[in-house]
Amino acid sequence: MRKPLSAFAVHAILGLYTLLALFPIVLVVMNSFKAKRAIFNTPLRPPTPSNFDPIGYARVFDDSALPFYYLNSITVTAGAIFFTLLFGAMAAWALTEYKFRFNTLLALFLSIGIMVPIRLGSVAIIQLVAELNLINTLTALILVYTAQNLPLAIFILSEFIAQIPKDLREAARCDGLTEYNIFFHIILPLIRPAMATVAVFTMIPVWNDLWFPLLLAPAGGKQTITLGVQQFLGQYITDWNAVLAALSAAIVPVLLLYVIFSRQLIRGLTSGAVK
Amino acid sequence: MAEVVIEKLSKSFGSVEVLKDIDLTVGDGAFVVLVGPSGCGKSTLLRSIAGLEDVSGGAITIGGRKVNDLAPAQREIAMVFQSYALYPHMDVAANMGFGLKFAGIPKAEIAARVSEAARILQLEPLLKRRPRELSGGQRQRVAIGRAIVRKPQVFLFDEPLSNLDAALRINTRVEIAKLHKLLAATIVYVTHDQVEAMTLADKIVVMNQGRIEQQGKPLDLYYRPANLFVAGFIGSPAMNFLKGEVVAGGTGLGADGRIAIALPPGATPGMKVTLGIRPEHMSIAVGGGDLHLAATVELVERLGETGFAHLRLASGTVVIAEIRGETGLKTGDRTHVALDPAHLHLFGADGRRLG
Ligand SMILES: Nc1ncnc2c1ncn2[C@@H]1O[C@H](COP(=O)(O)OP(=O)(O)OP(=O)(O)O)[C@@H](O)[C@H]1O
Ligand SMILES: [Mg+2]
Q1: Residue numbers in B near A168 (CB within 8 A)
Q2: Which of A124, A187, B181, B293 is 20–30 Å from B117 (CA)?
Q3: Containing structural domain, residue B169
Q4: Are A191 and A169 in contact (CB under 8 A)?
Q5: Ligand 1 pocket residue status of B43, Cβ below 6 Å
Q6: Which of A53, A71, A87 is where one domain is finished?
Q7: B37 CB near ligand 1 (under 6 Å)
Q8: Contact status, residue B300 vs residue B330, Cβ threshold 8 Å
């Protein structure tokens, strides 16, 4: 009877990893509810009634700018996901379904994007965004993140679209659907699980990114939350209560999005089945 | 319903010519069955009619309208795929009404047509199910229903029954025959199954390597195959072939001796010919005779009342003869086989039928 043992081992390893991954997050959330002194004296203990202090949250939500930073982050993330999925699925559909000149070359070109980090092009991107007068706009961020995520999205979605039986698309053609209708009414519903996967992959790096907000939208009220939190980190004094509260609150939206997508994922996996 | 006329149709994939010079007329309300070996171009021909493949040459006319450059939807055809191709994310009713919705047909009309089709195909209790909750036969009926609701000019079926088990296949075959009568539909139907072809067709089209070898009524193909290919393809087990040459007043079959048969005009002595005879037109005989050949029994297969005897002739050729009832034959027996002169087929060296 080796099986229960190896199952136990797998669970032990996963459990350990979960603990490791969650530890800093738990630490942040825990300490965000404590008074400043308690944060430094007993950083590893959960808040007690005596040292409970939501002052950090009060400061964060009193700050008139922070809610806007949240909104900026949500807008940028949602926008990037939306355009990545839309254009990614469209491009994947075109590349798998239609035979045209340079089809393979184009697919290859796009997949190179997976291997080259977009940050290498930061200087060029800044120049481009400046030329377009898009500095300090959310549009700039959405465009850059869409570009950053498209190659992988196209790659994953192509694989899924290629698996949709040819007969299905041809049945739709016989049914008189236009190519757009085939895409929106047949292809998109069938690749929903793949799109949820792509959305999850896209969402987290975008939400967490500090680099492009710093370069492209560092001021003018267009900061994202990761950038916005920096105002509490001073050179000499850091408002730890506020930093921890802001970070804890920043987990919530992304967690919500994840729950939504992962439900799609599971539902998608159990439907589908063609034959 | 409408007539489909195909003239000089050709189709190439790159440099490979898959359809060559196809001429075919499917009469209004006719049931035409395409048969042929795998890869001969049956599906390609069907898909060309549907508009799913662009043709390289020739013309396709449906109901008097040239459709070469029309999209599938504008050709007023409906296709039933071997894999059913039901939309997995929609229930049965939505699957059937889907095309109509995009054709801008009012909701009430769609509902009426769907319930009519569901009634004909006995799908009423299943309208709210998803395809994955249906059996193979039910899915097939939904696929047919999806074709019916569109009220097409022509129905195209590509091996619709090949994913069903034997019993269901017979049932569905009968259903399709009834449906054809009920709808007075023009149908083009591809199959591998001889029985389907013989029972359903008004006209069978035998294809080989992208060409039509022969087209005609099922029994015409059976009784008067135009060439060796059709002779060997139609009928199961296949027709027996004996090689020989024309001699005065008959045919010489080498070691099997000579048999006296009426020769068609144009058969001159010395001409190489192939003699064809179906297993059901051969019988076990006692002793020699005019059309009797000596044979050794190789194998006896009994299927019940009838069966087949595999016989090795003196020349070494193995032929299959149908047997009925208890013959007492067993492997190794020496016997004779009699050929029915009314059902002998003679083919020339080029494979064409003589006479
Ligand atoms: N898209 C394609 N590209 C290139 N060749 C093709 C294509 N589709 C079919 N062919 C070739 O055309 C020929 C005819 O194919 P088709 O599918 O019409 O055969 P079929 O008679 O339907 O065979 P089966 O009975 O196995 O279904 C085959 O040799 C096949 O390899
Ligand atoms: Mg085929």
Answers
A1: 85, 87
A2: A187
A3: 4-232
A4: no
A5: yes
A6: A53
A7: no
A8: yes
Tokens (6 digits) for B348: 């020339």
Q: Could you tell me if B319 and B192 lie in one domain?
A: no
- CA–CA distance, B217 with B220 (Å, rounded to integer): 5
Give the total number of structural domains in chain B.
2
ipTM at complex level = 0.81
Would the pTM of this model clear 0.80, i.e. be above it?
yes
B-contacting residues of A 170-189, CB under 8 Å? 170-178, 181, 185-186, 189
Alpha-carbon span A12 to B46, nearest angstrom: 59
Task: Give the span between the Cα atoms of B108 and A93, in whole angstroms.
Answer: 34
Tens of pLDDT, residue by residue over A40-83, are 888 888 888 888 888 888 888 887 688 888 899 999 999 999 99
Strand B240-247 to B258-259 pairing:
unpaired
Residue B120 burial by Cβ neighbours in a 10 Å radius (0-12, 13-18, 19+) = middle
Residue B44 CA: which ligand 1 atom is closest?
18
Do B255 and B158 fall into the same domain? no
d(CA B147, CA A159): 30
Q: Which class for B336: exposed (0-12), middle (13-18), buried (19 or more C-beta within 10 A)?
A: middle
CB < 8 Å to A275, chain B: 83-84
